[in-house]
Amino acid sequence: MKQKERQLREIKIMRVDKSLHLCSTFVALCFLFETAVAAETTEDPVDSNLDLGGALRLQHRYEDWDSSSKGGAGKIDFESLTLKLKGNQGNFFADASYYLRYLNDEEINSLEHGYVGYRFSSDRQLQLGWAYEPFGLQPYPQFGWTFNIPFYLAMGHSSALGGKYVQEFGDWDIQLGAFKKAIPVENRFSPNMADAKDVDDAFVAPTNRLQANEKENQFNLHLNREFKGDGWDGTFGVSAYRGDLVNRLSDGDGDYWGAELQSIIHRGPWTLALQGIRYAFNPNNPAGVSEDSVLFAGAGTPSYLVAAKGSIGVANLAYDLPVSSLGPVKKLRLYSDYSHLFKDKAGWDDSQMATLGVQFFAWPVMGWLDFTWGRNLNVMGGRPGGVGLASADASGSDRVEFRTNLNIGYYF
């Protein structure tokens, strides 16, 4: 027993050392970027201001599987109240977004993001707090209201506790991030990895109770370059992250990483967004716990398993259509979002998600009408044991599920 306690103390010390090393590395990189600038700009301080905004949204949903909205004309309900705060004092600034949502008839308080920052100049800044992780298509990985597969694997619109350095130079944009941990499960806006002890839902199968991994000490790189051609423009770039998987039940940590190529291309009213992602989770689980999948969870949604290794392809297309005969509606955006998860594990079926829809702009009112099809997705139909994004071997797997979602919001 004493030997076991000593081993656990040594592991904790090693984890602290890793965290300190991560922080020092991040600070050093920020310092190098600052000193690498040949001439420091001298700009007048920005005027102080404080802006409070947000949105009030309602939604109507119909689902063709056994759920609370099945049958009749579907279900209409309050979707969310969003409060956004932005302010600056000289070169310092703050940015935060809070959501009050109702998911599965449960009130959820979510922190989408919240950080303070400092502008070294108009094209260089540092953010500290619950900042967006720099990875993939930004700010959203899709055009529709319905998120796609990268979002449910914490690879799009995901925040974590840490810091991010952002710099633009010429046609290049670089973001460096260092993050200690994810937002707690009960306050997350987007799903992320979770320890089963922090997940309180009836959908966690008994075999999932020993899933005890959490992300820590993550480092991110996001690099984009702008291009312009004859009648088109866009950005091409790469993203990558690496971190530790801390397991409370095992004697050592695992690790995880992800990398992608991303591109957004504009030509007239058309916009094309592409992603190619490769990722791997390498947990160090106790004996008897499978390392082929890891547990994910979000606030107010059932937990689910995700294939530990795989590749994701994303292709999103949108067309902007100005209108003048629809009253307050000034523009329509027609879109198609498609994402596909290819799992490394032999015999595990792919997961797919496709959304067709239209967004209308009638400021201060905006809305989305989505028609979504999903296969082997926990957010579409659900699966016993939460295995849709993993083994997909539960009852109803491989069946294509359908959902419509109309979301209308007043923005202020």
Folded structure, characterized:
With 412 residues, this protein is mostly beta strands. It has one domain (51-411): Porin. Helices cover 9% and strands 56% of the residues. The protein contains two helices and 19 strands. The protein has helices spanning 2-36, 149-152, and strands at 49-63, 75-89, 92-103, 106-121, 124-132, 159-169, 172-182, 192-193, 213-228, 233-247, 254-267, 270-282, 293-298, 301-307, 309-326, 329-343, 351-362, 365-375, 400-411. Strands 1-2-3-4-5-6-7-9-10-11-12-15-16-17-18-19 form a 16-stranded antiparallel β-barrel. It has a three-stranded antiparallel β-sheet with strand order 8-13-14, with no helix packed on it. The longest helix is centred in the first third of the chain and has 35 residues, at 2-36. The chain is globular and about 60 Å long. Mean pLDDT is 87; it is low at 35-45.
Which helices and strands, and how do they pair?
Blueprint: H1 2-36, E1 49-63, E2 75-89, E3 92-103, E4 106-121, E5 124-132, H2 149-152, E6 159-169, E7 172-182, E8 192-193, E9 213-228, E10 233-247, E11 254-267, E12 270-282, E13 293-298, E14 301-307, E15 309-326, E16 329-343, E17 351-362, E18 365-375, E19 400-411
First-last Cα distance: 59 Å
Which of globular, elongated, flat, extended, rod-shaped describes the shape?
globular
Largest sheet: 16 strands, antiparallel, barrel
Order of helices and strands: HEEEEEHEEEEEEEEEEEEEE
| Low-confidence segments | 35-45
β-strand number: 19
